[in-house]
Amino acid sequence: KISHAMNAMGGTHALAIPNESRFIRFGIRVEGAGSAELSSLLLGESVEEPASIIGRSPYLVLTKQYPSYDDLYKYGFLHSRVRAYREHGLNVEVFRITSKVDQRYREFEGVDVASGDADLLDKTLASGKYKHVLVHLLDEVMWRVLEKHLVDIQVTVWVHGAEAQSWKRRDFEFALMPDKEVERQKRLSDQRTEFWKRVVSTQHPNLKLVFVSNYLLETFQEDIGVHLDATRYSIIHNFIDPRIFRYNEKTLEDRHKILSIRPYAKRVYANDLTVKAIELLAKEAFFCELSFTIVGDGELFEQTVFPLRQYDNVTIEKRFLTHAEIAEYHKQHGVLLVPTRMDTQGVSRDEALSSGLVAVTTNVAAVPEFVDSECAVLTEPESPEALAKAIKELHMNPDSFLKLSKNGSKRVADQCGFDVTIGKEIELIQ
Questions:
Q1: Which pLDDT score is estimated for 11?
Q2: Integer Cα distance of 132 and 293 in angstroms
Q3: 370 DSSP β-pair partners
């Protein structure tokens, strides 16, 4: 032994490592009564980039974003997965790849998140600790690292939508952009298409893809001009947790309580159609019997919801919600007004259906893969008139409302329950 140091728990300490050192032995001395948990061993300094990330699991989730207490909507679908994995005995580590690290390690609802750049990811994978990397929203920076380790490490890539779709499927976003920005977005999209062509041309047995819907698989193949062999991919929908979004039987009166919970960052969420539909409903004699709750945030929020501030029966809340809070809002409402311009599944819609709400949505993209006229109300695209008509029909036909409510919850349980989502993913991972 050349040297040693003893430090009390709960603080930050720096160790001077002698030049002659060949290895370091880490030990724990336990004294007195009480309990403590060692969650992971991090080689390096908390204020600097560590040599690598060392966790307790051989499975590493790689992502560009993860929810935080200040930003609840960033990749909520991924947090649902990680939480479900752990509850069913599959522990995973979470690595958020970023070139600008403001917080090296953080926590969100019991999940530890490490952040680092591509170099740290490379060192972490080279350490030999991880045998399977679970990637969400792959990009070129990630791929340059992952490709080097494919011989030794399994890589499963979840394809969710925007990161892999051609701009032609989302050109509605261009409406608020100047011409130069439109051209820039098209170039970036074309570059992503070429990137995905390179990825799928890597026919390595350790590389698998997971698509969240049949629609996404089909359009992905069309966009990159490549037909994938069935052995190279799986189709697994996003999990909807019935313990959080528990079915609550609705009453006839609940059809008058209408909810919208959306981000207001992009036109894809079609919040402008929601606002116009409410303005049309305001002309109806029964409008005073309805109540609306609009919850969300984002750069388009104020300008979008401004026309609704004149109505006494419209409650507007500028905030983000946790899953638990969303579930509480579901209990208090009967209808989810959720038009869309593009969905590869529609997780927030399915969460509401699971809770017993009736979704009024748009018949576009992957939406009809998950709902039909037996469990929701589908309207034609870009039509606030059709949305308003759907709300009116639910008002006029209370029995239909109750039927749709029950059917919607069952549809989600059958299509997005544990066995056909997380259960399949765990089989794929282990």
A1: 57
A2: 43
A3: none
Residue with tokens 């989600």: 412
Task: Kindly tell me the burial class for residue 337, based on how many C-beta atoms sit within 10 Å of its own C-beta (0-12, 13-18, 19 or more).
Answer: buried
Q: Give the pLDDT score at 45.
A: 56
Judged on CB neighbours under 10 Å (0-12, 13-18, 19+), 89 is exposed
pTM of the model: 0.87
**Interatomic CA distance for residues 313 and 161, integer angstroms:** 36
The residues, any chain, with a CB within 8 Å of residue 188's CB and separated by 6 or more, are none
Domains 51-235 and 252-416 share a fold: yes
Residue 51: the pLDDT is 74
Place of tokens 């388009």: 300
Strand, helix or coil at 240?
Answer: coil
Task: Show the tokens assigned to 183.
Answer: 């051209």
> CA dist 366 to 24, 37, 89, 332, 345, Å?
54, 44, 32, 28, 6
Residue 300 DSSP symbol: T
The stretches in the chain having pLDDT less than 50 are: none
CA distance linking residue 313 with residue 47, whole number of Å: 50
Fold designation for 51-235: Rossmann fold (3.40.50)
What topology is assigned to 252-416 in CATH?
A: Rossmann fold (3.40.50)
DSSP 174-223: GGGS-HHHHHHHHHHHHHHHHHHHHHHH---TTEEEEES-HHHHHHHHHH
* Residue 125 neighbours by CB under 8 Å, 6+ apart: 60, 133, 145, 146, 148, 149, 153
Give every CB contact of residue 315 below 8 A, 6+ residues apart in sequence.
Answer: 291, 292, 293, 294
How many C-beta atoms lie closer than 10 Å to residue 349's C-beta? 24
What is the pLDDT, as a whole number, of residue 104? 87
Q: What share of the chain is helix, strand, coil (3-state, %, to 5)?
A: 40, 20, 40
Complete DSSP assignment for 248-269:
-PPPGGGGGEEEEEEE-SSGGG
Maximum alpha-carbon separation in the chain? 86
Q: pLDDT tens across 305-337, in order?
A: 999 999 999 999 999 999 999 999 999 999 999
Q: Where are the domains of the chain?
A: 51-235, 252-416
Phi, psi of 280 (to 5 degrees): -70, -40
- Residue 258's Cβ-side half-sphere holds a number of Cα atoms within 13 Å equal to 26
